[in-house]
TrEMBL record:
Lineage of source species: Bacteria, Bacillati, Actinomycetota, Actinomycetes, Mycobacteriales
Chain coiled-coil ranges: none
Xref: PROSITE patterns: ROK
One Pfam family, short name: ROK
Family of this protein: Belongs to the ROK (NagC/XylR) family.
Full protein name: ROK family protein
Length: 334
């Protein structure tokens, strides 16, 4: 099947807390969006997805659906093996949903979806070997080698959020300690603020009173807003994030030698608070500094919409590759 820029697909970004759906055209523009809280059971989640598709199909003529899923997928993207925040286990999610809604359905890892969106419509457009690091609740990573998704041998690469930067550091949900995402995600940023507040005379930080009154009010977004206003604890927390992000990118560059690193996710849109400093740390930490070309490091152009736009692009690419869902994506895994 061939597709034109006028053909519309639905992208659905399924995260641990919310589900975002959009009708997207071939230029990566979102024409219509919906959002729902992520239901806790597989049956309720599937019902929610079907309802979002039905509502969007009432308003638009769409050709296919793409799902961006925060979890482990089989290399051919036909099976969701495990998702830490979703109920699916070894589930043939795209085929089952396709049978229910009567449209081709394709699935992809959420960070890979975001990477594809940045490649086709955003900050990765001129990258060759590109790494997309999504700094959100955790850290998602997508790697494009020569413009193709790199999955590794068994479909799980690259789990860069769980590279250890501080031995015996903060415990991580993966079972290890000191993982990169415990210092450079939105959650890690909040933990740094809490540590700094406990260590210092924090009366001069607005975050001290706020977190004492309501600990849940401390979010990555709130810390970013406080840092933008010059709050000293928030600024110090971002300096720490910049340090570890720079070190993490240097480790990654020593392994992959990318030409472009795109910083995406919720914190990607606040990159003015830390990216210059992270770049300096990266340049000083990378092996052979001064005698090798360094990757360009850029913030996202699509912000938190990258996952949903990328999911719609996965559907478009799947349609273009043939009528059998996941065929295009399976090829890149071989
Ligand atoms: Zn970890």
């Amino acid at each position: 099947m061939s597709t034109s820029a006028n053909d519309l697909t639905i992208g659905i970004d399924i995260g641990g807390t919310s589900v975002r759906a959009a009708v997207v055209d071939g230029h990566g523009s979102m024409l219509d969006t919906l959002r729902a809280a992520t239901p806790p059971t597989a049956a309720a989640l599937e019902h929610c997805l079907d309802r979002l598709v039905a509502e969007l199909r009432d308003r638009w003529a769409v050709q296919a659906v793409g799902l961006a899923i925060a979890g482990f997928l089989s290399p051919d993207c036909r099976t969701v093996r495990f998702a830490p925040h979703l109920a699916w286990r070894e589930a043939a999610v795209p085929a089952e949903m396709s049978a229910r809604v009567g449209l081709p359905v394709f699935a992809e890892h959420d960070a890979n979806s975001a990477a594809l969106a940045e490649l086709h419509f955003g900050a990765a457009a001129r990258g060759h070997n590109t790494l997309v690091l999504a700094l959100g609740t955790g850290i998602g990573a997508g790697m494009l080698m020569g413009g193709q998704i790199y999955r590794g041998s068994f479909g799980v690469a690259p789990e860069l959020g769980h590279v250890v930067v501080i031995p015996e550091g903060r415990p991580c949900s993966c079972g290890k300690r000191g993982c990169l995402e415990r210092y450079c995600s939105g959650t890690g940023l909040v933990d740094t603020v809490i540590e700094l507040l406990a260590q210092s005379e924090s009366g001069h930080s607005v975050l001290a009173a706020e977190s004492a009154a309501d600990p849940g009010s401390l979010t990555g977004r709130r810390v970013a807003a406080a840092a933008a206003e010059g709050d000293p604890i928030a600024v110090a927390a971002f300096a720490s994030l910049a340090h570890w992000l720079g070190q993490g990118m240097a480790m990654i560059a020593d392994v992959f030698d990318p030409d472009l690193i795109v910083i995406a996710g919720g914190l990607g849109t606040a990159s003015g608070l830390y990216l210059d400093e992270a770049r300096e740390h990266y340049a000083s930490m990378v092996t052979g500094a001064g005698h090798r070309q360094l990757a360009r490091i850029r913030p996202t152009q699509l912000g938190e919409s990258a996952g949903v736009i990328g999911a719609a692009q996965v559907a478009r690419m799947g349609l273009a590759a043939g009528s059998e869902p996941a065929a295009a994506l399976a090829r890149t895994a071989q």
